[in-house]
Design brief:
This protein has 371 residues and is mainly beta. The protein contains three helices and 18 strands. It has helices spanning 2-17, 38-41, 82-87; strands at 58-70, 74-76, 78-79, 92-108, 114-119, 121-131, 165-173, 176-186, 190-200, 227-238, 241-252, 261-262, 266-278, 281-292, 296-297, 317-329, 339-356, 359-370. The protein has a twelve-stranded antiparallel beta barrel with strand order 1-4-5-8-9-10-11-13-14-16-17-18.
């Protein structure tokens, strides 16, 4: 599947590379300084709060991100066999998972210094589990929706026979990000801004399986806590090359939500380079480091302990990703043309807490228009 998507991305980039022949005539690039255009400085679609607007500008945009998790379960940087996962006390493991996020960007700048943003989320999680206990032949067991009562620590997954798979999904609105960015510098060759973001807990944290047990922690659509996320972003341009960097930290202000737990704090640092192919088209590359703490607290109702995904210590860790993409100003809409961004990222390093399913790849697409 990964190879199919990589080929599709490369084909899309090839098509985008042909775009300049149909775009506006490129600006004179023989000069030392060229006019800064948004597609030059922006990274591709996978980063939020990365730009500001001039006073009176309004922007509306749509982002889509899909993350796929697959492969051998991992502890730290080591891959684990099914026998090792079973020896750790788990009769079932995650085989694969996908996470889809759709985000609406609404931005407004009341003046040249301040840019305000609100970003509601919609999320979907799909997970497939597999039984890994050879001693479980499946005699007398049914599907997930017909399990008997086995106590708070044993609902659901213990009845999965060796090799049996089961898929389940959740979907709904996630948390909503509200932020304000303050411009620190704004010249043709250098820009900087600081952002204070607040995540409102508009997503659910009480989603349950058909048997009444809580779903895996990561399949809840919200955090259930008010989170504060400050960030600092710098960006610049020299000739045809744009560059930028951002650091952010998401602080969970509560130790537990209404369901008894709280996700770990998240820190991120990222840097990118872009190359201006044409006045309306640029290629991008980006490296990112992400850290997330393990879950605090514990579900306060019936839940499973049969899989690594049911245990708080099996969340969080460190990962580094490499991303490649493109930004293009679409040939419609007059001088302020809508902008399309695409980015494909792959983890190059993952050091995971406990036992987890590693991330396989990440795809982001964004479309925005400034008025």
């Amino acid at each position: 599947m990964k190879h199919v998507i990589v080929r599709a991305i490369l084909a899309s980039l090839a098509l985008l590379a042909a775009y300049p022949a149909h775009a506006q005539e490129a600006e004179d690039v023989s000069q030392d300084t060229i006019v800064v255009t948004p597609v030059t400085l922006h990274p591709a679609a996978g980063l939020m709060n990365e730009h500001t607007h001039d006073g009176g500008e309004f922007m509306i945009g749509l982002r889509y991100t899909r993350s796929e998790y697959a492969g051998a379960n991992q502890s730290g940087t080591d891959e684990l066999t099914d026998a090792q996962v079973l020896a750790a006390g788990y009769a079932v493991k995650a085989l694969k998972m996908s996470m889809d996020m759709v985000m609406l960007d609404i931005m407004y700048a009341p003046n040249d210094k301040i840019t305000l943003m609100v970003m509601p989320h919609w999320m979907r999680h799909d997970m497939t589990m597999v039984g890994i206990d050879p001693a479980n032949t499946g005699m007398g067991h049914g599907d997930m929706g017909s399990h008997g009562d086995m106590g708070d620590m044993g609902h659901g997954h213990h009845s999965m026979a060796f090799g049996q798979t089961m898929s389940h999904a959740t979907q709904g609105f996630g948390d909503t990000l509200v932020s304000a960015s303050y411009r620190l510098a704004n010249t043709p060759s250098f820009k900087a801004h600081a952002t204070l973001g607040v995540w409102a807990p508009t997503g659910k944290v009480d989603r349950k399986n058909a048997d009444g047990t809580f779903v895996h922690y990561m399949m809840q659509s919200g955090s259930g806590t008010w989170d504060i996320e400050p960030s600092v972003t710098v960006a610049g341009q020299s000739g045809l090359v744009g560059w930028g960097a951002q650091a952010s930290y998401r602080w969970r202000t509560d130790d537990e939500n209404e369901s008894g737990f709280a996700f770990g704090d998240k820190a991120q640092a990222t840097g990118w380079l872009s190359y201006l192919v044409d006045s309306g088209f640029s290629l991008t590359s980006r490296v990112t480091w992400e850290h997330e703490g393990q879950i605090l607290g514990h579900y306060n109702g019936p839940h499973n302990h049969a899989t690594p995904s049911d245990i708080q210590a099996n969340y969080g860790g460190d990962k580094s990703l490499a991303g490649f993409g493109a930004n293009v100003a679409l040939p419609v809409g007059g001088p302020d043309r809508p902008q399309l961004g695409v980015e494909f990222g792959v983890p190059v390093y993952q050091d995971l807490n406990g036992i987890q399913l590693p991330e396989d790849w990440r795809l982001s697409v964004s479309l925005g228009h400034t008025f």
